[in-house]
Design brief:
Helix content is 43%, strand content 20%. It is α/β, with parallel strands linked by helices.
Length: 323
């Protein structure tokens, strides 16, 4: 990754303003990495902003951001609309945790910024940010936190312990408690973050969910069913859900005996059905999701399908699985 870090540092230094953006409905991995990178960039005496999500932020991320503000640490969050007047020819846009233009927080910014730098840990997709001046995609990495922490080590810089704690929480979420997508490097990164001041108690508080949400998710899991031997599917109906809700249910189902692959399907917008897929690794969740228009990692993948019903999306998954 040294070449990535050299190019990233070079591009940060030669631009006057840097904008950081992650995917829609950001999580602790993508947004936590944006926060950490923003502080790294600030230490280089550069003007830096993070695109703040226009839709509801998930509860863990809300708690993480509150923990930062409670410590009076300033993060330059601005909406895309607020950022547009600040964009010049010497602005750099860094996109973290997605390579797909349709999945970024605000696709309009892609057309307004001349220089775009992409860092992602998901599988290569046919959908790319075409005008990127540099693209780094490494699906062997567990998370964006793993990459940004390695950059922190490369620069030999320190961050406030609360930001380090949020990064460790993001790493834990993206690896499903270190059960998926992990390597020796992943555990080294976790150990490094712990050594640098991550607070395990604060991390647990950030990651805690409500009792009501826990019961609601498990009510859905009770009604899950096999679409093939060791392929378990859960339909979440009756409401609009966050991607994180779908992901947590898929993670939980993968813990069961005789489950190699799990799928959670539910509406994430009125006209969009989301799918979260998990695999123990023998079958590629990413390949299955790619077949229905999504993508991802071997063990962790997702899709967002417009103008289809939940039933229609379930049939799409069944068809791919049966093939």
């Amino acid at each position: 990754m040294e070449y990535l870090f050299e190019k990233l540092t070079e591009n940060i230094k030669k631009h006057d303003k840097i904008i950081l953006m992650t995917h829609l409905r950001p999580d602790l991995d993508g947004m936590g990495s944006c926060i950490a990178l923003s502080k790294i960039i600030e230490s280089m005496k550069k003007e830096v902003y993070i695109v703040y999500p226009e839709e509801r932020v998930n509860v863990s991320l809300e708690k993480g951001i509150k923990a930062i503000t409670d410590k009076n640490i300033k993060i330059n969050f601005l909406t895309a609309k607020e950022l547009e007047p600040k964009i010049t020819d010497n602005t750099l846009l860094i996109v973290l945790d997605t390579q797909k233009p349709e999945l970024v927080e605000n696709p309009k910014l892609l057309s307004k910024v001349k220089d775009i730098f992409v860092i992602d840990h998901h599988m290569n997709s046919s959908s790319h940010i075409e005008k990127a001046i540099f693209e780094y995609i490494n699906s062997n990495k567990s998370s964006i936190v793993e990459i940004i922490t390695s950059y922190l080590k490369y620069l030999n810089k320190c961050l406030d312990p609360i930001i380090i704690t949020i990064m460790l929480a993001g790493l834990e979420i993206d690896t499903n408690g270190y059960n998926l997508k992990t390597s020796e490097d992943t555990f080294k990164i976790a150990a490094y973050l712990t050594k640098k001041g991550a607070d395990s108690i604060v991390k647990q508080e950030i990651l805690k969910g409500s009792r009501e949400d826990f019961i609601r998710r498990h009510d859905y899991i009770k009604n899950s069913y096999y679409i093939k031997d060791k392929y378990l599917l859960c339909e979440m109906t009756g409401a609009i859900y966050d991607n994180v809700d779908l992901a947590i249910v898929a993670d939980e189902m993968l813990r069961f005996e005789n489950v190699e692959v799990s799928f959670t399907v539910g509406k994430i917008k009125e006209n969009v059905v989301g799918v979260s897929a998990r695999s123990m690794g023998k079958v590629s969740a990413g390949v299955i999701m790619s077949a229905i228009g999504g993508g991802g990692h071997v063990t962790d993948a997702a899709a967002q399908i417009k103008n289809k019903t939940i039933d229609e999306v379930v049939e799409m998954i069944k068809k791919v699985v049966e093939e």
